[in-house]
Amino acid sequence: MSRLLSRLLALVLITAGLALPGPAQAAPARSAAAITRAMQPGWNLGNTLDATGDDETSWGNPRVTRELLRNIRAQGFRSIRIPVTWGQHQDAAHTIDPAYLARVREVVDWALDEGFYVLLNIHHDSWQWINTMPADHDAVLTRYEAIWTQVVTAFRDTSSRLLLESVNEPQFAGSSGDAENYALLAELNASFHRIVRGTGGGNGKRFLVLPTLHTNADQGRLDALTAEFAALDDPNLIATVHYYGYWPFSVNVAGGYRFDETARAEMLGTFQRLTDSLISKGIPVILGEYGLLGFDRHTGTIEQGEKLKFFELFGHLARTAGVTTMLWDNGQHFDRTAGNWRDAELFAHISTSWRTRSGTAESDLLFVRRSAPVTARTITINPNGTGFTHVRLGDTTLRRGPDYQVSGDRLTLSAGLLQKLTTIAGYGVKASLSLRFSCGVPWRLDVISSDRPVVQPSTGTTDTFTVPTTFNGDRLATMTATYADGSFAGPHNWTAYKEFDRAFSPDYPAGAIKLTPEFFAEVTDGAPVTLTFVFWSGETVGYQVTRTGTTVTGVLL
């Protein structure tokens, strides 16, 4: 094109409000902090390529398809963590099975093609063989370096949206203490960094993710990782920790069945430490896994309303701190066959927390005793910075005054409303009220007709013992177990409160409470154990079990 024609075309375009493209310029380099922000939110492809069996389906999940990844992307996730366990796919010379490496490459490429940022790691190798490093230092380091040398060579020129994580939840057995642990982890991380950077190409500036010891956010762990960042002096490094909450709450043990002030304080303290120790120093943070540990057995281990309060606050703190979060999902959340969320209400709270806050309340359960006169009931609401607006029952907006009243953070439901809602015969949920706030997800409040639960005597064995229970609409929260002298019986003998779904569990359809073989394995033979079943209505019911060999007898108290 001649210079005159170019000027004439430019004049026409300017007149039309358009412009010619300028000379091509290289895209500005993105910082580690910018990449970390762009990855929010993230999801884990758990129990798949990290499974320790022969195949990615060995832990119960279906084979990964591109359609699955496309579906996850459609849920709003921008990044995907692909945990990989490599050890069982290595031969004696530490060579990775080419077919397996190709399969990992295929899944990574699909994820990149779907627009994800991808985080690839070494996963369960951490506790399978890397943890023996104190006693077998050279052999472990050689094997670790062999894995990363092969992996980073295979991905040398892959998109910069691929990030690499040195090792999942690093741990060391038989070490002399934290000083040795920190030194061993620093050695692994430095070796990883050297191998990646040494292969050149896209790996020369690839973003690398380094964990704390145990991927834990205790202060000593954070300080040690901060020192590693200073020593490596590389702007393309990102820190990672995991978060599964205050342990008694996360598994429902030791009386931690509520998301109470202790559990809240533990979460607040974690994010404050991340802010003070890393983020304030310019070190971005990826929370590479989060959730509740009880989910590994059953998502009902923690009561629904309590877990919703946990995830609502967690999302808020992560968002305000600028931490990228990657939901741990080993198949218990997103149904990879049906292509939907197993608990849509939970995902609504999680995904909404990426953008804003939601109001909650002290509970999502309101028990109205069927055998007693109905009275007005007051609960505490937690607006969480939003504004309470109204209450709905289905499509009907309830009337402020006749149906409910609000004073500060106290919501009172009238006796007339509760009487009307519970007139239907029988026990159980009679209505689900929707508490509405100025933004976020509504809070569901179930109005439940109930009476005191009733238990019956029983005999059985340590393998198959159940307490016949008429729940009368109530729900089991926890259980204590003590001997006659007041000492604690069963597993976790440092607390009276036993672990939900491990020592005991309710079976509502069968009308029973099951005591597990694991519970009786730590019960003294011939010593009566007093059980107290604690229900969400506030009711408690006493029971006594005695183990004699493999025989168990249960009587009322």
TrEMBL record:
User: Which residue range or ranges hold the Glycoside hydrolase family domain?
Assistant: 56-333
InterPro entries annotated for this entry?
A: Carbo-bd_X2 (IPR005102), CBM46 (IPR040946), GH (IPR017853), Glyco_hydro_5 (IPR001547), Glyco_hydro_5_endoGlcnase_B (IPR016282), Glycosyl_hydrolase_5 (IPR050386), Ig-like_fold (IPR013783), Ig_E-set (IPR014756)
Which keywords does the record carry? Carbohydrate metabolism, Cellulose degradation, Glycosidase, Hydrolase, Polysaccharide degradation, Signal
Report any Pfam family annotated for this entry: Cellulase
Q: Does the keyword Signal apply?
A: yes
Residue intervals of the Endoglucanase B carbohydrate binding domain: 451-554
Signal sequence annotation: 1-26
Residues in Carbohydrate binding X2 domain copies: 363-447
Keyword Endoplasmic reticulum set for record: no
Can you tell me which family this protein belongs to? Answer: Belongs to the glycosyl hydrolase 5 (cellulase A) family.
**What is this protein's name?**
Endoglucanase
Native organism: Actinoplanes couchii
